[in-house]
Amino acid sequence: MMIQASCWIYLKVCLVLWMVGQLQGRVTAPERLEAPVEKPFTLTCSVSRERGESLRQVRWLDVQNQTLLSYQPGNRDSVSGQHHVELASSPKDTSAITIRRVGFRDEGCYTCIFDLHPTGSKQGQTCLTVTSQVTVDSNKTAVSGKRASLSCSYGLPEKVQQIVWKHTSPQGESTEVASFAKRSDPMIEPPYQGRVWLSASLSDSQLTIQPVAIQDEGCYTCLYDTLAEGPKSSVICLSTYVLPKPQVSYKTITAGVIEANCTSVSRPPAEIVWNVERDNRTMGPPVTTQLPQGDGTTLVISTLTVQSGLLKDVSVKCLVHHKGLESPIAVSMNTKIGTALTILISVTTVAALLVMSLCFCLWKCFLRKEGKCVKNCRQTSEQV
Ligand SMILES: *[C@@H]1O[C@H](CO)[C@@H](O)[C@H](O)[C@H]1NC(C)=O
Ligand SMILES: *[C@@H]1O[C@H](CO)[C@@H](O)[C@H](O)[C@H]1NC(C)=O
Ligand SMILES: *[C@@H]1O[C@H](CO)[C@@H](O)[C@H](O)[C@H]1NC(C)=O
Ligand SMILES: *[C@@H]1O[C@H](CO)[C@@H](O)[C@H](O)[C@H]1NC(C)=O
Known about the structure:
By secondary structure, the chain is α+β, with helices and mostly antiparallel strands. The protein has helices at 2-24, 308-313, 335-383; strands at 27-28, 32-36, 41-47, 54-61, 67-72, 75-81, 85-88, 94-99, 108-117, 120-131, 134-136, 140-143, 148-154, 160-168, 174-181, 187-188, 196-198, 204-209, 218-226, 230-241, 247-254, 257-266, 271-276, 287-292, 298-307, 316-321, 329-332. The chain contains three helices and 27 strands. The longest helix has 49 residues, at 335-383. Bound molecules: 2-acetamido-2-deoxy-beta-D-glucopyranose (4 copies).
């Protein structure tokens, strides 16, 4: 009886020790992790060993419970596994593997198994969610009447149900423009049909507007409806430009005083400066008036008053600066003086040419006479 009882106690102690051993030989691994698509990602597991235990092998299983990688610690040559993963450096009793480039198929639960001697294997699990962000171009500008392309992209088309593009006007009104859903054609809302197109892609979405109208200005939201992660969106804003076509007009207001107007209709309003013969000095400050037009453009009039005498001496130009132009447009006021100058130059050139040909003729005739004389003289001397 005594022997039996002590045996029981012994067994109980053994059991407790074994359970403690189980606890001590625990594997710690993060339960859930988010891995950005198309980037490398490292998974880590660590084991806490009991005294006397040795780590013989570490194995990693992928989402299908297939061996992803296995190795014997301290032996680099023992590493074997799939090509898209590699062993990362890690502290003792920790194992780290790196997925070189995370893809949609890498989503799922990974198991790390530590084979301990003599106690057996301990395992841990980490579940990976592959994520992506919606990326957009920077804000854009388009010239009215031309074409504008707005792009959005999301790295996990497999998770996308549909893409919706919305337009929010500068006044805050929001309307749907177009959408594209899995297994269907791009849909363009009636007000936009014929001048808006949407690419048939669930990853790289491109909204094209041609011709761009002033009302197309505002911000566009591309919204990706994803299964697991809900809606994901991003915003890109479009500014529409109307380029200026400046004109200059002038009239004499009183004797010897001319009033000149430089006018430009554009969006956004142009900046007008006057330039006097490569010098930017203006003769008296010009007066600028801005008149907003009903269609979103602005008429800018810059009025300059000058002494009529100045116009004869120097070139007066109106320079129109606009965000949509690479260089300012220059309109000269001295068109009449310009033509007079051209005529003067032409007349001078013709006169000069005439004089030159006359000189040439005279010189040639003179030389020929001389030449004839020499020839004749020589002939006569030979005859003699
Ligand atoms: C992998 O094994 C675990 C148990 O170890 C199981 O719960 C899971 O369903 C298995 N996964 C697959 C894809 O077979
Ligand atoms: C784009 O434009 C909007 C509104 O015009 C502005 O709030 C936002 O900061 C701009 N974004 C960038 C990246 O310039
Ligand atoms: C210039 O514009 C003003 C209006 O801002 C107008 O009253 C004036 O007649 C214009 N002058 C010329 C020369 O066109
Ligand atoms: C005008 O010209 C002066 C020198 O001639 C220069 O210092 C100044 O920056 C110029 N202003 C502009 C607006 O170009």
